[in-house]
Amino acid sequence: MSSASADTLAFARALDGQYRIEREIGRGGMGIVYLARDLKLDRPVAIKTLPYHLASDPVLRERFLREARTAAALAHPGIVPIHRADELGEFVFFVMGFVDGESMAQRVRSRGPYPPAELVPLLIDVASALGYAHARGVVHRDIKAENILLDATGTRAMVTDFGIARLQQAAPLTQTGMVLGTVFYMSPEQVVGDTLDGRSDLYAFGVLAFFALTGRFPFESETPSAVLVAHVTQPPPTIRRIAPAVPPALGAIVDRLLAKDRSARFADAGALVAALADAAQGIPADAPAAADVVLSPTEAHAIWERAALLQELTGQVAPPAVAARREGTREPLATGAGYPVGDVRLAARDVGIDDRYVERALVEHGVGAGVPGEVVQPGGAMQERVNPLVGAHTRLEFEVTIPGELTDPDFEDVADEIRRSIGDVGTLNTIGRSVAWTSFGTPTSQRKLQLTVSSRNGRTVVRGFEDLSQLMGGIFGGVVGGVGGGAGAAAFGLAMALTQGAVLVAAPAFVGVAGGAYALARGIFTTMSRRRERVLRSAVERVAQRARECIAARRLSRTTDPRRLPR
User: Fold this and answer.
1) Domain boundary residue, one of 217, 250, 281
2) pLDDT value at position 273?
3) Residues 258-280: pLDDT tens digits?
4) Is 142 a catalytic residue?
5) Which of 1, 168, 460, 530 has the fewest CB atoms within 10 Å, i.e. the most exposed one?
6) Is the model's pLDDT at 365 over the cut of 70?
């Protein structure tokens, strides 16, 4: 406190006997935050006060206190609690719980994007808190990484600053820092001044997730006005185009949250929590965080030139059969030099080059994620919520769409790949412009699996489907009905004998054995379902890759214009 400002010293004197200010821990356009000690309860607290030049405005003072009191009524594990909202002399402030950790913004900027499995539980914390607040008519209006606080372990997230955005609306427009901290997160309806509801917070939540997973925002520019216009008029990039390592289910959630039309987002935070919980089941614990490749200036300009050429040729160039990585031959960078791949994409978009051509140029260079739409995605059956009693999907489905059509000889190559990929007994049928492989039930294999490849209207679709209902019935029937029923009956009979017919004493023995058998059956089916899911996805990916190779080889063999050949 020896170097504290005059305002801080005056505030400390006003709090004397109640709180002891220890240090400043944050400062923004709408307030200064101090770490202090509550002298009566002997605990650390955080105290936020309006800057002096704003506290002198009676309208802002009253709104500050009103919003703080509204937020104080929110009691949820994911919301930083407010203990007191008051004014002492010329100062107006509120006291809240002290979270002994960093903000999510600090975490991302210091250590980079989150691994998906580490982030999803934190997102669920935040979404649960928003659902609680929305159900009580409170919209946050300023969800951003700076307002998500993490505990000391980094495994729990809490939302802070409810209601502060309302103060920003009432503050003088000349106040610096007022918009810059939130412009990246503002929903389209918030930008144009429409009435807001909880879905505006969900849009900001989508930006938060995008930032935490990629380290950047959907819309970035040096001028706030350009970002605001983009929120309203430009489609956001899909997150997997920026960070291919993001799991498809999680990426689909983020993309949906960033819809311009609020009705296209999740209906409420409760639906978002359910979607995140479902997505979490399929995210491996060791799923990597996004890593942004840095290109040399020469490489970046080569990609921009190639993308512009591809756009000039109206997409007539097929993507390469295999996106060969070139880490070993990359041009060395000087310290601090180069362009992150995400910046290369954004710069191309700014000058009017369509994203798909940039992506093709990146793939040709060995650093892209593949042309959008060519990534294997879960089908409709996988979008259904998992029955919690069963524990996993009973119907599996994956599909991918590839530009271009297969010829008759290509279908023969693809059929051979299907046989190799499945590795099981089945029948193969060719009908018109499609080929279908269907599993053939045997005494040792009762799989109900189908893999189809159809090629028409300038595109080829590869789809895999497997019905696990029969497998599920066999496991639950065998384990619960057989093991659980038999052992449960035996346990019941033994208990009856030992207790001389006391049914109330013997019944729990039966229930315990049956419950254990059910848990065992659920665990077995969950493991088998996820194993089958990996096998089916891999089969679809292999068949799709073979189809790409056939299409690319034929197109490149017919190319006569040297400009169309990959460099």
Assistant:
1) 281
2) 97
3) 999 999 999 999 999 999 999 99
4) yes
5) 1
6) no
